[in-house]
Design a protein that fits this description.
Helix content: 25-40%
Shape: globular
CATH superfamily of one domain: Vaccinia Virus protein VP39
Distance between the termini: 30 Å
Number of helices: 10
Order of helices and strands: HHEHEHEEHEEHHEHHHE
Structural class: alpha/beta
Strand content: 15-25%
Number of strands: 8
Bound molecules: S-adenosylmethionine
Radius of gyration: 18 Å
Oligomer: single chain
């Protein structure tokens, strides 16, 4: 079962997804996917719909982007975005589960899933479903994170490790990317492309991705057993690193493009 994403997550993601690193991640994902006018694509776990709307511009008036998400709040937010951007005729949105796609076999030219499968316990099934709905010759782009790649400058590395372990308890698959080439193959697909998308912040910028996840990381760590004082001390250390040269964060996202033979 998916982690429940509610209204506060919508607000949080809307903010974090405006960060320059994530804008760039979407641009690289779209470039790898190469959506063409008239195509029909599926965005699995579309969240607040930023990528779905960008893809809708690429497929043009004759194309369609279908977005599904387990969270009705995310779907509502994506719908509002499509309306605001005048794209409601090209973007179809509905609640749905990545492991049970309610679409006919071979009905999409491309499928994309960005930062979704880390929340999905039955990830093999999700990939088999994505592969099923893809047309022969279609493209399937997956972006996910391995949290082992996270480097964050902190005053107390042991405390940091405990906070991150608490945070990662939220994910069904915190280390999915190294397994993805094998899972893609097992789903009957062919791996066409693999790339790293680094997220790098060398200053404490409130608009950056990493500063945006400090609060949620504290909350998740506390929810998963880290004492509140410890999580707050970890947060205070990071938030205090505003002086030039005292902040560093890096995390790798991995982009895979598979094709259906
Ligand atoms: C971190 S957000 C990513 C949103 C979007 N793909 C993006 O990168 O902008 C994860 C999204 O996956 C959705 N999700 C999690 N598990 C899911 C599942 N089993 N089926 C469909 N959506 C799911 C969540 O509701 C949430 O909107």
């Amino acid at each position: 079962m998916a982690t429940a994403f509610g209204p506060s997550d919508v607000e949080r993601l809307e903010k974090v997804y405006a960060a320059p690193e994530i804008v760039e991640q979407r641009a690289r994902t779209r470039a790898a996917l190469g959506a063409r006018p008239g195509e029909r694509g599926l965005d699995v776990g579309c969240g607040p719909g930023l990528l779905a709307c960008e893809l809708a511009r690429e497929v043009g008036a004759a194309g369609r982007v279908v977005g599904i998400d387990a969270s009705p709040d995310m779907i509502e937010s994506a719908r509002a975005r499509a309306r605001r951007e005048g794209l409601e005729a090209r973007v179809e949105l509905s609640s749905g589960d990545a492991t049970r796609l309610d679409f006919p076999t071979e009905s999409f030219d491309f499928v994309v899933a960005v930062q979704v499968y880390l929340y999905v316990k039955e990830v093999e099934r999700a990939l088999t479903e994505g592969a099923r709905v893809l047309k022969r010759g279609g493209r399937y782009a997956i972006v996910d994170t391995d949290w082992d790649s996270c480097v964050w400058l902190t005053a107390d590395r042991d405390r940091h490790r405990r906070v991150m372990e608490g945070r990662l308890a939220e994910f069904a698959q915190p280390h999915l990317p190294p397994r993805l080439p094998g899972l893609i193959r097992a789903a009957g697909l062919r791996l066409a492309q693999a790339a790293v998308i680094p997220l790098l912040d060398v200053r404490h910028d409130p608009a950056s991705f990493s500063v945006g996840i400090i609060g949620p990381t504290r909350n998740l760590a506390v929810r998963h057993g880290v004492p509140r004082e410890e999580a707050e001390a970890w947060e205070a250390d990071l938030r205090g690193r505003t002086e030039e040269g005292r902040y560093f964060f890096s995390l790798n996202r991995f982009l895979f493009v598979a094709t259906k033979p």
